[in-house]
Amino acid sequence: MTQGAAVTGMVFDVKRYALHDGPGVRVAVHLKGCPLSCLWCHNPEGRSPMPQILFRKERCIACGACIGACPKGAVKDAELCVGTGACAYACPSGARELCGKETSVDDVMAQILKERIFFDQSGGGVTLSGGEPLYQPGFAAALLKECGRHEIHTAVETCGFVSRSVLMEALPFTDLFLYDIKHMDSDKHRKYTGVDNEVILLNLKVLGEAGALIHARVPFIPGVNTDEENLRSTGTFLRGVKGVEKVNLLPYHSAAEDKHRRWNIEYKLKGLRAPSEDMLKNGAAILESYGLKVEIGG
Question: Which of the residues 12, 48, 117, 129 has the least number of beta carbons within 10 Å of its own beta carbon?
Fold first, then answer.
């Protein structure tokens, strides 16, 4: 058994041919668990660190196969669910889906290496995403090291709300950090994400001082962080952080609401519309006025 076979983590998706998670064509490995609860979260199924059964009510044909398959009787009492996935495997209509599976580094690498030709041709690589990938620090570090051993470019997409030691463990094996800056006001950051931003902002400065290459990613959420005051505070801050190569302004889109609805998860920003092209251009111009290179989109 290799060392990679012994190190396991909870993975909920491995996306091939990812085009918006760093340079080139990439494989995006999504790890479960996140310390934030952003109201606009595009991957709500990645918040919990545990395996979950996601239910699409509109697909259910009421055949009862799930009830007979579940060893715990959890279909009728969700609190009994231990995430075996038996109901999902038995469901003939795809109404139930197991989200999250304990997976070894070797198993993930086997999937990654199948895409090697696309990395070499496009300058791509592997991006660890989530959830928050550094929520599983041991697994993330082991996977990054293994990618490095195969000379595969690595990126980590992070909210930054992690311990300093976890960041420093990942740094030597990470070619690029995709670092989220959601709001500069600490109270508003807590309101919209569940945590304040002190650790996040400090960690970004520490990464820059340590020589990391950083793409700052600013989710552009109308009515949340698109006001001029916040954008100017963001520009002032990022201008003073070493290692920030560019800023990606990421427009909100309705896929977040659709995914919450699909998985029967409460969504608290119902009816929120995507920002207009003029809003995005204005936001980008404000950030550019601080000497930052800005791209709209990921």
Answer: 117
